[in-house]
Write a structure and sequence with these properties.
By secondary structure, this protein is mainly α. 69% of the residues lie in helices and 0% in strands.
Length: 271
């Protein structure tokens, strides 16, 4: 049976992706939400002028500044929010219990879920970049090194978010409570991690708290790709710290993997 784990997991990616796009609330709150928020921020704050780091240093538009944060938020929503709510709901409505009675391996099941996150997150990021460049006139990086950084931050961020979403799915007591449990956590992380608010204006203690979680590092990694190098002075340590970005994302990936392995059950805890 083990020889079929990967093929079955690969086949479930298509199944999970179709199910995702057939769910209007998932599409709106995880797929389109960052694009809508970028449009709102750009329309609401562009009248105030460009964002600058110092006199004499060329500034950037509001949309250009917030784009990296929205890319990071998209990864978090696609992985953590989407999977945590989805899996908790499948536990609550008995879907997982029925799957547990089939030859389906948990590994194949999670390969399908994680693969779906990669597919949807990639499509979301591509659409967000396309809208940013065409509708908002945001300049894209021209150096190959910047896109290489984008690639590894994106892959690590999506993988980490997916595994943390699987781990978080064990917290809600029922499928009905999943949204109430998961969304506040995700929303708070977005506010303290430099997605909706400029990270440099947050209190130092809040920056320190955000630094313990992966979203801050995903956003910082994306800012290193899309913002001029002069903007690194707005970071907490005045540098992009890509080494620490990789360290924290890998660390949280391992945490998510371990917790997922220890907590996953085909049935609810109270069943």
């Amino acid at each position: 049976m083990s020889t079929g784990i990967l093929p079955i997991g690969a086949s479930r990616i298509g199944y999970e992706t179709k199910g995702y796009f057939r769910s209007p609330d998932a599409v709106f709150f995880t797929f389109l939400f960052p694009i809508i928020m970028l449009g709102i921020f750009t329309a609401a704050f562009s009248a105030a002028g460009d964002i600058e780091v110092a006199p004499g240093v060329e500034g950037i538009s509001v949309g250009a500044y917030y784009l990296p944060g929205m890319l990071a938020a998209g990864m978090l929503l696609s992985g953590v929010q989407n999977l945590a709510v989805d899996i908790a709901t499948e536990k609550g409505d008995g879907t997982l219990k029925r799957l547990g009675g089939t030859p389906l391996s948990p590994v194949s099941y999670f390969l399908g879920k994680i693969g779906q996150v990669f597919v949807t997150a990639t499509l979301q990021a591509a659409l967000l970049l396309l809208v940013s460049a065409t509708l908002f006139g945001i300049a894209m990086p021209t150096e190959a090194g910047a896109w290489l950084t984008f690639a590894w931050v994106f892959v690590l961020g999506v993988a980490t978010s997916a595994l943390l979403g699987i781990a978080l799915s064990a917290v809600p007591r029922s499928g009905k409570s999943a949204t109430a449990v998961v969304i506040p956590i995700v929303l708070v992380l977005q506010f303290i991690s430099g997605v909706y608010l400029r990270f440099n204006i947050l209190p130092e203690w809040m920056q320190n708290v955000a630094s313990l979680f992966p979203l801050k590092w995903m956003a910082q990694g994306m800012r290193s790709v899309f913002l001029p190098d002069a903007f690194k002075v707005l970071e907490q340590q005045g540098e992009w710290e890509l080494g620490w970005v990789a360290f924290w994302l890998v660390a949280w990936l391992v945490v998510g993997l371990v917790i997922s392995r220890l907590t996953f059950r085909w049935i609810r805890r109270d069943a």
